Amino acid sequence: MPKTVKPNKDRRDRSLDDALASSFPASDPVSMTSTSIPATDHDAHIPKGRAKKSKPYKLYGASGGGSMIVEAAFGFTKLPVEFVDVPWTDTGWNSKALKKLNPLGQVPTLIMPDGKVMTESAAIILHLADTVPGFELVPGLNHPDRAQFLHWLVFLVAAVYPTFTFGDDTKRWVGADEKHGAGKALRETTEEHRKKLWRHVEKQIDGPWFLGPTMTALDLYMWPMTFWRPGRDWFEKECPKLFKIGTVVKAHPVCKKVAARNKL
Ligand SMILES: N[C@@H](CCC(=O)N[C@@H](CS)C(=O)NCC(=O)O)C(=O)O
Q1: pLDDT tens, residue by residue, 157-199
Q2: Domain containing 110 — which CATH number?
Q3: How many CB atoms lie within 10 A of CB 150?
Q4: C-beta of 65 in contact with ligand 1 (< 6 A)
Q5: The pTM is what?
Q6: Residue in 59, 70, 107 to alter for ligand 1 test, most ligand atoms within 8 A of Cβ
Q7: Percentage of the chain lying above the pLDDT 90 cut
Q8: Is residue 76 part of a domain?
Q9: CA 31 – CA 24 distance, rounded (Å)
Q10: Is 1 among the domain residues?
Q11: pLDDT at 1 over 70
């Protein structure tokens, strides 16, 4: 699993408070929860008076992992969701908790109200946008940022995320050659590759958020991802815009709740 790096409280810069006061747009959780987003949109077809309480989603996650991105995204909705915390020692191909649900043994793994399984953070986030009217973390179909949002969402999960998959537990991939240094080499090359990817992103974005003036789900990824390897110091020096996004998102009330539930 991507090792989290303990946040350094002293590093919280002064402009963070200004950012907090000004930059959470309509996605501010207070305004989100005060709108009339129905708790159970999937029950919309049930005639009034016969509406029954919808079954909750069930989200399998691990503390500090990418499941927190999805948990935070759920925090911007009123959808009912239950959490199952999987110990890191029980993730991966031999996971007892996840084996029957997701053979990869990865989190997030989501059980839908109808019992079907959904994995892949990007798919789950797009599903939330499909399900929750007014979900503002995903630019809508005709929004001018839609194409860039999709571009970066898939980039994060298809280009960046696998560098952890291959670098975290190198024995899985190099087998007996681990003894001969292949694991170390794989770790190093995936780390270097990831740094290149992040530098590329940093050059492409203007800030203050990933897509500019408005917070989107891409910013949620920057929360855990800027705390994972290569770590906070590296991001602060090499990718200050991404570093800042991670810092501000971490302080968002929704993410604070998620962090507390994850005992971070
Ligand atoms: N493509 C997946 C990646 C999920 C993933 O790699 N999760 C990590 C935790 S951050 C995991 O479960 N690692 C355990 C493993 O692969 O064995 C997504 O976007 O949801």
Answers
A1: 999 999 999 999 999 999 999 999 999 999 999 999 999 999 9
A2: 1.20.1050.130
A3: 14
A4: yes
A5: 0.84
A6: 107
A7: 80
A8: yes
A9: 10
A10: no
A11: no
Pocket perturbation via mutation, ligand 1, pick of 84, 86, 104, 125 by most ligand atoms within 8 A of CB: 104
Q: Residue of the nearest CA to atom 12 in ligand 1?
A: 106
User: Is residue 75 in contact with ligand 1, taking CB distance under 6 Å?
Assistant: no
- Does the CB atom of residue 167 touch ligand 1 within 6 A? no
Q: What is the pLDDT of residues 73-110, one digit of tens each?
A: 999 999 999 999 999 999 999 999 999 999 999 999 99
Answer yes or no: is 5 within a domain.
Answer: no
Distance of CA 46 to the CA centre of its chain: 32
Q: What is the mean pLDDT of the chain?
A: 86
Domain total for the chain? Answer: 1
pLDDT band at 14 (very low <50, low <70, confident <90, very high): very low
**Helix axes of 121-131 and 67-75: crossing angle, nearest 10 degrees:** 10
Token pair of 253 as six digits? 């009330």
Q: Rounded to the nearest whole angstrom, what is the distance from the C-alpha of residue 73 to the centroid of ligand 1?
A: 17
Candidate from 89, 127, 161 with most ligand 1 atoms within 8 A of CB, to mutate: 161
Nearest-atom number in ligand 1 for the CA of 70 is: 20
CB 215 within 8 A of CB 27: yes
Q: Does some domain include residue 102?
A: yes
Helix/strand/coil for 136: coil
Sign of torsion, CA 114 116 121 122?
negative
Q: Which domain holds residue 20?
A: 14-45+52-261
